[in-house]
Amino acid sequence: MIDFNEMFMFAKVIECGGFLAASKKFGIPKSTLSRKISALEQRLNVRLIQRSTRNIMITEIGKEYYQYCVQMIAAAEKAENLINNKSDQPTGKIRITCPTILMDLGLSKTLAKFMQAYPEVVLQVKIFNRDVDIIAEGYDISFQLMGKESKNSNLIMRKIASISSSFMLNPAGRIHPNQVQKPSDLHQLPTVGWLSSHFQSAWTFNKEGREVKISNESCLVCDDIRLLKEAILCGRATGCLPLKLARQEIHDGTLTTVLNDWQLEPRKIVAIYPSRQGLLPAVRALIDFVVEDFAQDG
Asked: Which Pfam families does the annotation name (predicted)?
């Protein structure tokens, strides 16, 4: 007979990275966790975890089994949320995933405001700079920053806001604004570039119907927009930043925009979720709240 407690404990040990961490987080004795997972392995007749004195390592079959355990836990939570969310006031737990750049663009403040407005809703936020299978990994919603052309998907996608970006540099640095008159000038200059699964390895510029692609051969490529901003501020390189992220620096003159006659390929913040049918009231309230808050912030 399936013991769902064993599956739950196995998933939480993997999630926490070890027996001791899971024991501290969930208040379950370490010996109980170890005994339950040993019983699970014995019942399944398979090794799910390789143990050592210092850490654990999940086996390949354990990785596959873990995904089903995560789905089982997510389904159980949704079943409880279904009851909890029958009330007029949204309640229950929402599992969210997003990349770091959205936190820097204001999603962190928006989620904090949502918590004030809906105190009966519990948010579990996990930040990944990678593609996330929200169904397999048990998330209710994923917020992402994407290009104009989105990937084909059976998931529902709702636009939250458009994000305008521009190439910038420190006018007191090594690069003078006059050195950047057209996109091809970037080939002769040090640049920094964003690295993400949703972004191309080239910048796409448009001007009066003419499209130009410039390969992203940067001296710094990373998925942390804050590092890119600091690299541009230091004055050694130019790079593309969301205007929203550089308002203060543009205002005080430590950054200036270049290539202003050229439009960069637009980006958009989107909410991705499995289905409109059966969408929990708390999730619907969150999406509506984020759309409205970003609209007010401009």
From this structure: HTH_1, LysR_substrate
What is residue 75's predicted lDDT score, i.e. its pLDDT? 86
Radius of gyration (Cα) for the chain, nearest Å? 23
Buried residues in 59-73 as b, exposed as e (16+ CB within 10 A): eeebeebbeebbebb
pLDDT of residue 74: 86
Strand-pair partners of 272? 142, 157
Question: At 196, is the pLDDT very low, low, confident or very high (cuts 50, 70, 90)?
Answer: low
> What would the pLDDT profile of 34-79 be if each residue is shown by its tens digit?
999 999 999 999 999 988 766 788 999 999 999 999 998 888 887 7
- Percent of the chain exceeding pLDDT 90 equals 40
Look at 58-62, 137-141, 276-280 and tell me which has the smallest mean pLDDT: 276-280
Maximum Cα interatomic distance, the chain, rounded to a whole number of Å? 73
Distance from C-alpha of 263 to C-alpha of 204, rounded to nearest angstrom = 8
d(CA 200, CA 224): 16
* b/e map 12-48, b = 16+ CB within 10 Å: bbbebebbeebbeeeebeeeebbebbeebbeeeeeeb
